[in-house]
DUF1294 domain-containing protein (Arenimonas maotaiensis), 87 residues
Amino acid sequence: MRALAIGLLALNLCALALYAWDKHAAHRGTRRVPEARLHLLALLGGWPGAWLGQRLFRHKTRKAAFQRRFTACVALNLAILGFWLWR
């Protein structure tokens, strides 16, 4: 259980850092973080860090297609958590 908690913390910090990096790259006009990578981190459990990164850096919040996929990642995570707690 401890390893899972440490892994989730690492995923969330990584997600937060990648949102900061991507926002910085967007301002500089340099290579960006692929959206698929941002979604993968959210899907693997890093969605709280990704959500915080979106809010802190005002990044990817107005892009509807991105937000739909992000919401699906969050919903899937919460469904899995609910099932795990229920059983």
